[in-house]
Amino acid sequence: MAITGIKGFNDILPGEVEKWQYIEATARRVFELYGFSEIRIPIMEKTELFARSIGDATDIVEKEMYSFVDKGDNRVTLRPEGTASVMRAFIEHKLYAQDSVSKLYYMGPMFRYERPQKGRYRQFHQIGAEVTGVVDPMIDAQVLNMLCHFFAELGLTEPRLEINSLGCPECRPAYRQALKDFLRSRLELLCDDCKRRFETNPLRALDCKAAGCKEATAGAPSVLDNLCAGCEDHFSKTKQYLDSAGTPYSVNSRMVRGLDYYTRTTFELVTGLLGSQSAVAAGGRYDGLISELGGPAIPGIGFAMGVERVALLLSDKNFTRRPDLFIAALGTEARGFAFKLMGELQAKGVSVEIDYDGKSLKSQLRRSDKFNSRFTLVIGEDEIAKGTAQFKDMDKGTQADIRLETQDIFAALRP
Ligand code: HAM
After folding, report:
1. Domain Aminoacyl-transfer RNA synthetases class-II family profile, which positions (predicted)?
2. Is 262 assigned to a binding site?
């Protein structure tokens, strides 16, 4: 029996991959407008990096990581996200010494052992961006503007931006306590997961989808009513900057992120078009993470989008590439000529397809249609003798004689 791929690990086949390349190229182009440089980080890190940054009591660290002990007895993990690795590299290479502000983006596969379904996979891909060194809420708004700019460039009006503030180590403990006091008498209503994490992470109940958790948290105190003056000011200035840029958003005080490193601004780009996997991109501020990982006290903010989810939103668009020219050649001499012509045109930057099997003219033209080539050139023994051939414009449905000279054909392809 043939060996199949692993559940939740997908191949991205030609036909689909063009869409991915378009998404990646758009991200590079837009992010570079905002001063971001690419960083490439390894796929595997020491397990403790994720335990310490994402948090021991999170679903990701508790049950979703691909962790194992390697042949040298090291505990390693396939990265479940990019922020921790980028910050590890930022500290390790002292990037903060080069400039007080650093803007980095990354793209690549991430790994989480989740139950696969539409929009949720075990190997999935993120494109993310991280800024370090800026406290001012201007950067919160700029990062969000950049993310919305990216989606606008793709022609997507979905997803919508939701924002929240999760406070800071000064105000969050009191809010946590207030929420726990509120939930204590409703504990029985909570789902098993939220019951289990009531002590370690009670905020998760706020955005849990279970009916009992929704009922239990109805009327719960809002994090936004419990921010300290500094966090309150930061959040209101972030909103002012977004307003001044004309970036639409709504405030969702129940948004709680599944990673522990967030402080102050958090956000998600959500859509109703992907069933239960509603977050297409998400992120927030993490002012304590770099020092938590042993670096200096430098603030940070960033996001990551799920490329599979972005691709699903683009599903009705056709990104398949079409060759500039298809050469249909009949007979040994014509095939030899076509082979040489093809190489010369490709060297000049023209994409050319050909039939390799020496099939009938009809079958070669069928193949040209299948490729949806822009132009077709038909060459046989007569054409070689005359030095001219028929050159068809497949979009216009017209045809004309053309000299069988590389220069002439090149000029006709590039009007
Ligand atoms: P996250 O919310 O865990 O945040 O993931 C970000 C995005 O990755 C999600 O919104 C979703 O689109 C996609 N995603 C997550 N898990 C899966 C999955 N199993 N299958 C498909 N797509 C998935 C982070 O990872 C943070 N590092 C974001 C960040 C960057 N915060 C600050 N900087």
Report:
1. 23-323
2. yes
